[in-house]
Each structure stands twice: as C-alpha cells, then as structure tokens.
Amino acid sequence: MLSIIIPAYNEETCIATTVESLCHSFRALFQELEIIVVDDGSKDKTAQIVRMIANKDKNEVSIKLIQNVTNKGKGFSIKRGVLEASGDIIIFTDADLPYDVESIKYLINRISDAKPIVIGSRVLSESKVSAKISWFRYLSGRIYSILIQIFMFQNIPDTQCGLKGFTSKITKEVFPFLTINGFAFDVELLYILRKKSCNILQVPVTMISDRTDSRLNMALDPIIMFLALFRIRINDFLGKYG
Prior knowledge:
By secondary structure, this protein is α/β, with parallel strands linked by helices. The chain has eight helices and nine strands. 39% of the residues lie in helices and 18% in strands. Helix 1 runs parallel beside helix 2 (46-56) and helix 5 (135-151) packs parallel to helix 8 (221-237).
C-alpha cells in the first residue's frame, strides 16, 4: 500500500489537478493507494474540492482529508499526515506537484528495507530543473544549504526538496520526535535520521514548475529557518530526539 501526503494551504487552483493526476498515475501500480490531503487552515475552497474528489473516487482510491483548525505550518501538516497514514510506503510531495510523475515513481521504486529513506535532490548532476526560479529564492536556498553544511550535517546539499519517501517502519521511529512546524522541518527530520545513523538515499528529480505564489515569506521565513538550526541543536542537547 502506498500513502501520499499532500500539505495544502489555499490550494483551490491546483489541488484537484494534483490529486487526480496522482490517482491516475499510481492506482494501477499498488494493491491499495491512499492520498491524504492535510488542509492547513485554508481560507479558500481547498477542503470542499478534496471532499468532492473523495466522493467521486471512493471506490477506487482512498482519498482522505485532514483539516487543521488554524494554519500550523508545512512541517506540522506533513507530520500529522504521515502519522495517520496506513501505507507500507509513505511519501510526501507539494500541492502544486512541481516534480514530474516519473521522478515520483523512481523515488518510490528505490524505497526498500535496505534503503528506508529516499529523498529527492534538485542539485544532483542527473536532475533537471526546467522551472524558472527567482534569483533571490535560488540565492537564499544556496546560502541556507551552506549554513546547514557548516552547522548541522554534510553531504545532503538539498534538504528542502519537497519530495521524500520512507518505509512505514522508519516513520514510526522518527516522525513523533519532530518539533518544528514550519519550513525548517526538513532539516530537523534529516538531522534526526542522521543522528540515528539511518541510510539516506538521494535521487535525481525533474522539476517542471515552481509556483509564483510561493508560501514562503522571503522577508521573515529565512530568518525563522536560520534560527531553527539553533533550536534543533538545543533540542538535541536536551535529549528531545531520543
């Protein structure tokens, strides 16, 4: 069984296309397919659209809607969705589906007991990024990657790629320890996995789009994400990661 987690905040313009595309691409490849959309306190029709699709496809794919009463953050939403997933393999991806389906299939096929964590990376030589990314977003991402290499861990140059997959066993061992609700949750997740000496496989992706209405506040979120690095270190010192 495959579970796909999609965090969503005000995604009424794309959520139907994303869910239907994933249903079409994966329903025949697994005995059971579960898609969990975690609506992070959206103020638009995201939840209504997901309910409509779930009612339409209920005999073929399990489509579940989880709603946060208020906006909690991407990390909180993914953690909640993962912990409620039933699949043997659990992946998460972004609501606008920026990575092509073949990249998702390749990542899923590499997940096994020997390789329980497989993450997408946009900076591998085999990766293709056809989407136009603003110079400020690209530069801030590179700087953040350097800071992670210096203060946290090395050899994972793209921590923020929004496509990651796991065996259900590893999610039960790691996700309950996550404390960061925002965009820096990826770093905390990978930090815990490295701390537990987990085998992390990085695979190339093809990025076909990059949203113009990014949920990242470029004035505030980079500061919060930087401070989160210190919070992770403090959490570790206090023994919060087991």
